[in-house]
Amino acid sequence: MIKYLGSKRTLVPVLGAMAAAVDAGTAVDLFTGTTRVAQEFKRLGMTVTASDIATYSEVLSDCYIATDATAVPSAPAKIPIRTGREDVPDTMSPAPAPTPVPKAAATVGTAT
Ligand SMILES: C[S@@+](CC[C@H](N)C(=O)[O-])C[C@H]1O[C@@H](n2cnc3c(N)ncnc32)[C@H](O)[C@@H]1O
Fold first, then answer.
1. What's the number of CA atoms in the CB half-sphere (13 Å) around residue 34?
2. How do the domains of the chain map onto residue ranges?
3. For residue 97, how far is its CA from the centre of ligand 1 (angstroms)?
4. Ligand 1 centroid from CA 40, angstroms
5. Is 18 in a helix, a strand, or coil?
6. What pLDDT, on the 0 to 100 scale, is given for residue 68?
7. Does ligand 1 have an atom closer than 6 angstroms to the CB of 1?
8. Which comes out higher in pLDDT, residue 73 or 30?
9. How far is ligand 1, taken at its centre, from the CA of residue 70, in Å?
10. Is residue 51 within 8 Å of 58, Cβ to Cβ?
11. What pTM did the predictor assign?
12. CA within 20 to 30 Å of 38's CA: 1, 46, 73, 112, which one?
């Protein structure tokens, strides 16, 4: 969770309650940042527009605001992963135990 100056993190329930109290049907969340405010409005069933200059915010708003779960087909249970190494088996077996390395022969000599 991103915390920064100006965050509405603790105000989200209050803003949601205010919107619900006036039975708002639409909302615009300017400077949406994390989109947490927009997400609350969307959760309440409002039509939401979120705007921000930051790229990270665009990613979050594409995911949480612009996309409707009902419009996204459910993912298959298992997505095959193509590695480009078809010689590698799908299931990995445990790595073999390491071969013990013989201890180095004791150095023979005399310290001066
Ligand atoms: C305090 S944060 C937003 C907080 C957000 N409401 C929350 O609770 O997470 C301010 C946001 O304003 C955005 N911002 C700053 N200058 C902007 C500009 N000129 N146009 C659009 N967004 C801007 C920043 O990218 C940042 O995400």
1. 13
2. 9-71
3. 53
4. 17
5. helix
6. 87
7. no
8. 30
9. 28
10. no
11. 0.70
12. 73
